[in-house]
Amino acid sequence: MAEMAIQVRDLVKSYPRGVRALDGLSFVVPEGTLFGLLGPNGAGKSTAVRILSTLARADSGQALVAGYDVVRQATEVRRRIGLVGQRLSAVPTATVRENVLLQGRMFGLKGRALATRTDEVLSMLALSDVAGRQAGFCSGGMKRRVDIAMGIVHRPRVLYLDEPTTGLDPDIRVQLWSDLTALVRQEGITILLTTHYLEEADALANDIAIIDSGRIVTTGSPETLKQKLRGDTLQVEFESDQSEEAIRGALAGLDGLDEIRVDGRRLHARAPIGGAAVPVVLARLGQEAMAVRSVSVSQPTLDDVYLAYTGRRFATQADAGASAGGQSS
Ligand SMILES: Nc1ncnc2c1ncn2[C@@H]1O[C@H](COP(=O)(O)OP(=O)(O)OP(=O)(O)O)[C@@H](O)[C@H]1O
Ligand SMILES: [Mg+2]
Question: Disulfide: which of 32, 91, 205, 212 matches 36 by Cβ 3.0-4.6 Å?
């Protein structure tokens, strides 16, 4: 069995005024993998990261990082982790290189070793060309990469990235994804990344845990999670609104067709093999003279997984959380 870089068991954390941010959180992360903690606003992701980086203490439960207990062996843990928090951490008036040097020095690197390692991480994160620029004058994507360079200069075994791509342009986000994948490969580092972007977890993570209200609702590789939802999603758009009853009548008794929902002029259903169901479904609808505008078949997404486990759509949840968060802070 692979060594576990992170082992979390039954973490509970309540904040004053009764918010139970973590409610029995458990998961494990094998060494040298990228683990995605995926959840909407307020799910407890940052709270978990703070506890795993020894910045906060759980009320109960246990967490081991690189084999050390985050409470009893906090110093050992701190030496082996890097943290890139939700907020930018570089000193804006110092240059990109100075920021990385300073961070390396805080972890005991010096002299030639520090200079060499600094240049190495700057090149790894494509920052060599802007090394002399003040961090404050860097673009959003560059600043994030400076944060990551600062997070890895001391060669941590485990790197936490708390929503590293929030607020970045889509193309810069994709660039950062490939930087992170390269990091795992080149440095053999274990990354725990939190995100509320489903496609980010899907693109990057070896394993994902979906967190909701301080608990893991499901965990596994993106592929296994999607396979748990058997079959494909079939969507049919009609030329005009149809009655649900008429559609159900037309499709009655079709083998394997499941979860039929009708929404105005759209029909959603699940079928074991979408492509095979299309001609049969179209034939039945044709018999009833229901004019079809388009048909599509898609494989389940992580959003479908989230819906299946929580009964809510991820996107609307995250949006609601984001606007609520905006008002309170
Ligand atoms: N210092 C605090 N005092 C009181 N409540 C807190 C504190 N920090 C977090 N909470 C609450 O704990 C819950 C979990 O918060 P947390 O920041 O861990 O969520 P998150 O998953 O990181 O969300 P986001 O995606 O918005 O960053 C939320 O309900 C939040 O309001
Ligand atoms: Mg957070």
Answer: 205
